[in-house]
Design a protein that fits this description.
The protein is of the alpha+beta class. The chain folds into two domains: 75 residues, Rossmann fold (3-Layer(aba) Sandwich); 31 residues, no CATH class. The chain has four helices and two strands, in the order H-H-E-H-E-H. It has a two-stranded parallel sheet with strand order 1-2. Helix 3 links the parallel strand 1 and strand 2. The longest helix is centred in the N-terminal third of the chain and has 16 residues. The N and C termini lie far apart (46 Å). 10% of the residues are buried.
Length: 106
Amino acid sequence: MLPFPYRCGQIMGRSETEVLSAAQILYPCMQCADIFFLEADICQLGMDQRKVNMLAREYCDDIKRKNKPIILSHHMLPGLLEGQEKMSKSNPSSAIFMEDEEDAVN
């Protein structure tokens, strides 16, 4: 089995065979740590984040934690721009944000 940074590389659009920078190795570790720091019981993220969620569950085995986070994965929402496959926070006009007012969303 590949070490976890390679297994989780797809969350950054990387393949399992690419050479990763330090930042790309730390990114999945930090996402995994977020789950425990936030004391999340349920992790609801897109399918593209599933490997990090599974990493968190595997880590529970390593630390002998009985209560593993429940993983709720869903498909990505399409972006609001023509031909856009998924929403992107990088382009505010293509996404809906939690703090957006109802009128702006409509």
